[in-house]
Write a structure and sequence with these properties.
Length: 223
Amino acid sequence: MNKPTLTTDPVALGAADFFARSKAKLGFDVPAGLYDPNIIPASGDPGTDKMLEIVAREQPVRPAAVLIAVVDHPEPTILLTQRAAHLNDHAGQIAFPGGKIDVTDSSPLDAALREAEEEVGLSRDFVEPLGYLDLYGTAFGFRILPTVAKVRPGFSLTINHSEVDDAFEVPLSFLMNPVNHQVHSKEFRGMERFYYAMPFAERYIWGATAGMLRVLYERIYSS
């Protein structure tokens, strides 16, 4: 089984360049695959694509939205959370603020902003949405549509400990450097599937979160 393509080309990083590229390359069209189980989000890994086909047949599609909040510091950062240790799903894992799309949400963007407010108290007054990233599928049936956003510094957070244990920022320069994009693998029903990991200090960023960060790198800097 082939690994995802792992390039190690350095990228020229800077807040103005990143935000300009994001505005030029992203938009707010909602992909049909967010709700249609017959449309399988492409991952670039044949093993993962096969897994998503199996999951789509066995589980209902679970539309979700996350906020990739890029904080406009002189050296920009991305806001991440550590999920609460008592949760049944993905306890203690590193994630973006976000969750399932409710029927009361007017759009995936609205869901991402609502979840960020509920989880960490990030006021949408500080958030400038730039557009949707590519749809991302997971082994649990989630179809995740990330919203990339520029966040003005000066916000204060209030952690909702029923959902997350911590919130922290990681330099964009680290996360967008492909040298830091490790490729790991695990077995799923006899098939090897590959996934990304981006360990940062004591934080182990992996799975869907690392996968979406890799998609962000490829969309903004490689395409």
